[in-house]
Amino acid sequence: MERVVESEEAVGAGLIGEAPAWREVMEMLPRVAASDLPVLIQGETGCGKELVARAVHALSGRRRQGFVAHNCGATPDSLIESELFGHARGAFTGAVAAHEGLLEQADGGTLFIDELGELPIDLQPELLRAIEARASVETEERSAIAILAGHMIGLPRHTRVDTERLHDFVE
Predict the structure, then answer these.
(1) Angle 148-62-59 (CA atoms, 0-180°, nearest 5)?
(2) What is the DSSP secondary structure assignment for residue 92, as one 8-state letter?
(3) Which of 4, 29, 51, 55 is the most core-located residue (most Cβ within 10 A)?
(4) Minimal CA–CA distance to 56: which of 72, 69, 75?
(5) How far apart are alpha carbons 3 and 5 in whole angstroms?
């Protein structure tokens, strides 16, 4: 029987497994964690995308900052913009207090956006601009964040993707 050798870092992050594909993922984690580029984690529902995202965060230089996870598939379209970007008190009916968006909550840490393909098409360019802005501007008030996204294998056809720009972020 072949002895399973896991990446020390992956085991430290709480991930173990024997499948060859899973071992490849575990061996890749330290390299991905060292990068500041956004990452797309693909896999079937329930396969552990958020666990992988948490492991990447735990292995990264951002581990002392917050990890914020959000599932776009579980948020009504009418609320997703407010969840991601926040809103001021009185910005719309029912906004009785200011709300800090997920991008701000993850300041200096990691934001994991699960089920990215469920993000309404009109918000996709806005999110891409926000990711680009945070990646290029770091101030005393705002730190860059790591963006991790998860989705089932194969993003839906209704997802508009500028493949050249996405390639820059995902590869």
Answers:
(1) 75
(2) S
(3) 55
(4) 69
(5) 6
Domain 37-170: which CATH number of 3.30.420.40, 3.30.428.70, 1.25.40.390, 3.40.50.300:
3.40.50.300
Tracing tokens 């990446």 back to the chain, one arrives at 7
> In the numeric block, which tokens belong to residue 161?
């993707």
Q: Phi/psi at 15 (nearest 5 deg)?
A: -110, 130
Which position has the higher pLDDT, 121 or 165?
Answer: 121
Q: Distance between CA 109 and CA 155 in Å, rounded?
A: 26
pLDDT at 69 over 90: yes
- Whole-angstrom distance, CA of residue 40 vs CA of residue 51: 13
Nearest to 129 by CA among 96, 169, 86: 169
Residue 22, token pair as written in the block: 């899973």
